[in-house]
Each structure stands twice: as structure tokens, then as C-alpha cells.
Design goal:
GO molecular function: [protein-PII] uridylyltransferase activity
Largest sheet: 4 strands, mixed
CATH class of the largest domain: Alpha Beta
CATH architecture of the largest domain: 2-Layer Sandwich
Strand order of the largest sheet: 3-2-1-4
Domain DUF294: 186-319
Number of domains: 2
Number of strands: 6
Protein name: CBS domain-containing protein
Radius of gyration: 20 Å
CATH topology of the largest domain: Beta Polymerase, domain 2
Shape: globular
Domain Protein-PII uridylyltransferase N-terminal: 25-147
Pfam families: DUF294, DUF294_C
Order of helices and strands: HHEHEHEHHEHHEHHHHEH
CATH superfamily of the largest domain: Beta Polymerase, domain 2
């Protein structure tokens, strides 16, 4: 049975290396994301072609989805892998095929410059490659166990974005999450608690706080300190308001008018995504891309970073208070 979204194997005019170089030279977030989309699509198509040559066409309809920064359409010059597969098979008789496909996708993405996820959030693992029925059971089990680890999986899945195949399969997963949110009033509070506090970014004397030790000592954590307060806060609000959009900006736009205070930060967050690229230009690999040498920043850039830190932290605290009150 072939994939509902027919995959074309027509060669792209650019080779993978050319696309990667184009990505490194891009300064606009939206155009950079377009390049990532092409690179990921090419990798998935190569993987599917390889598996089809060995095992034949997919034996059931399926969907491939991405999570993390790819799911949110917020990738920087480099990013790691976060993805999964859901397939139409109640008896799991096709598990071997789709596990093989997930493994090949992981290998192709790595070859294209996407590092494997440290947390193994990839379709090459059984946790993230399951039939529709088994996915439903797994979500139910995650919520039932209610541990730090399983709630992290729920939050990770909340950023899932359909990439190829049956889009309605991803909608089913999101609807299952919403079912639990509606029937378990405390679940959203538990997810908020799991998200945790934001990382402090400004010191007592108004200075940007850098890493005190480790391989990134002396550098500023742009991801955890500046970006994540917006990302994490809007993810939680999207769950509360049953917003299917995955990008932080789209989640802001789709919030009800009652959240006017939060919606007003759209332009600021868009500027943050653009400036992030200017801060990260020149990095040659994924490792360390989220850590900025503030000594190389201008006074105006440092001041703008401080404004984003304050704004993001205030925004997240506001959202946290709303959600914890119920």
C-alpha cells in the first residue's frame, strides 16, 4: 500500500551540500526554515527509496512527523533530530518495516547534518514508531504514570507537526492529548510544573549571566534563557486552548482575544528569531550553537538581549500564574 501523499524522487537541482551551504548563508528565519524543509524531505525520500528497494512499498498507510524546533518551524543553522512515525496496523505485523524505515530516516538525516537526539526522540526507537492503536495506548499510559519522564514525552509530542503521509494520524494523537486534558483537570497543572522554572539570565547588577563552568563556561545560553520562556509558555497555552498550531508565532496569533497581552509579543518574538541567527552566524556544527560569546556583541545587542530576557520571563510567569490558578 503506497503512501497517501505521493513522494517524488525527482532529483533536486541542488545537492545536499549545496542546500547546507545555502542554509548557513541565510539570514531570514522563514527562508532558513524552507531550506530545512527541503533537506529533511530529501532525506526522508532517500530513506523511503532505500527501504522500498529492499522491502517493497510501505505495507500500510503511515505518517512521518517532526517535533522539537523542526516541529515548531524554529530551526537555527543546525539542529538535532526529533521525529516519529505512526502507521495503520492494529496487529503490529508491520512493525519491522516501519522500524527499518525509521532507522534509515535517522541515518539519512544524520548524513545531512542533523545530529541524533540525545534523548532518542527518533522514529528509529519503538517509543516513537508505533501503530495508531499502540500510539493511543502509549499516550494513555504516559498520562496514567504521571512521572517527570512521561510528562516530558507528552510535552514533546505537543510540538508534533505532520511532515509526510496521513495528516489525520497526527491529528488523532493531538486529539488524544486533548481528551486527557479535558477529563483530567489537574493534568495541565502537572505539565506546567513539569516545564519548570525559566533559567535566570540577568544578574543582580544588571549583567547578562553566563555559564559558570563546563565546556560553555563564559558563554550565554540563548536557548534556555531567552528562547524557551516564549516557547514553553505558548506550548502550554496551546494545550489549554486546544490550538493545533505548532510554531510559537502561530500559537500567539491563534490565541483568543482575551490573551491580548500575550498576543502583543508577536513582533518581538519574530525579531528574536531573526537576531538569533545573527548571534549564531559562523558556527560550524550543532554543538554549542545555542551558546553566545557576549564579549563579541555590541552594546545595543546586549541591551536587546536583556530586554528579551525580561520580557520572556515576565511572559512565562504570567502564563504560569494563569495555568496554575486553573
Amino acid at each position: 500500500m503506497s503512501v497517501s501523499k505521493k513522494v517524488s524522487f525527482i532529483e533536486d537541482e541542488h545537492k545536499g551540500e549545496d542546500l547546507r551551504q545555502s542554509a548557513l548563508n541565510e539570514v531570514k528565519p522563514s527562508k532558513l526554515q524552507d531550506i530545512h524543509e527541503r533537506m529533511i524531505e530529501q532525506a526522508v525520500c532517500r530513506a523511503l527509496k532505500t527501504v522500498e528497494s529492499e522491502w517493497g512499498s510501505p505495507p500500510a498507510h503511515f505518517a512521518f512527523f517532526v517535533m522539537g524546533s523542526a516541529g515548531r518551524l524554529e530551526q537555527s543553522y543546525y539542529s538535532d533530530q526529533d521525529h516519529g512515525i505512526v502507521y495503520d496496523d492494529d496487529s503490529n505485523q508491520f512493525e519491522d518495516y516501519f522500524m527499518r524505515l525509521g532507522g534509515e530516516i535517522t541515518s539519512e538525516l544524520k548524513a545531512a547534518g542533523y545530529e541524533e537526539c540525545d534523548g532518542k526522540v527518533m522514529a528509529s526507537t519503538k517509543r516513537w514508531c508505533k501503530s495508531r492503536t499502540e500510539w493511543q495506548k502509549q499516550i494513555d499510559q504516559w498520562v496514567k504514570e504521571d512521572t517527570w519522564e512521561t510528562l516530558r514525552y507528552v510535552l514533546t509530542l505537543a510540538d508534533a507537526r505532520h511532515f509526510m503521509g496521513e495528516a489525520n494520524y497526527i491529528i488523532e494523537l493531538k486529539e488524544r492529548l486533548q481528551h486527557h486534558l479535558k477529563t483530567k483537570p489537574d493534568l495541565l497543572k502537572r505539565l506546567t510544573e513539569n516545564t519548570g522554572r525559566v533559567k535566570k539570565g540577568i544578574g543582580f547588577f544588571g549583567q547578562l549571566l553566563t555559564e559558570p563552568k563546563g565546556i560553555h563556561q563564559g558563554k550565554f545560553d540563548l536557548k534556555q534563557t531567552v528562547l524557551f520562556p516564549y516557547v514553553n509558555g505558548l506550548r502550554l497555552l496551546a494545550l489549554k486552548e486546544n490550538i493545533m498550531a505548532t510554531s510559537t508565532l502561530e500559537r500567539m496569533k491563534k490565541l483568543p482575544a482575551a490573551y491580548g497581552h500575550i498576543k502583543s509579543h508577536q513582533l518581538s518574538f519574530q525579531e528574536l528569531l531573526t537576531h538569533r541567527l545573527s548571534f549564531q552566524r559562523g558556527h560550524k556544527e550543532y554543538a554549542g550553537i545555542h551558546f553566545v560569546d557576549i564579549d563579541r556583541l555590541s552594546s545595543s545587542d546586549k541591551q536587546r538581549l536583556k530586554e528579551w530576557v525580561r520580557e520572556g520571563h515576565e511572559l512565562y510567569q504570567y502564563i504560569e500564574n494563569v495555568l496554575m490558578k486553573g
